[in-house]
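I am still learning, so would you mind making up any protein sequence you like and the tokens describing how it folds?
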Amino acid sequence: MLGALAASLESEQSFADLKAGFDNGLVKFITWGILSALGYHLVAGVKHLLMDMGIGETKEGGRTGAIITLVLGTIVIVLAGVWVW
């Protein structure tokens, strides 16, 4: 991702080449996979930060937090797919 950012900032031609490369379905799929992993990691990290503050430390709270994390993670993954495609 950082390599793509660096390439896009080099020149107008390198940006156009990179943009043309993103029309490939495999590149879109890989980008979606990376964004999905980062999005779920962010949602799960927020859950753990809340647990560190004492929210949801019980068995029932942990179960509820896990369900909320899965639902929000799924929403983030779907939104990433919509954005990429």
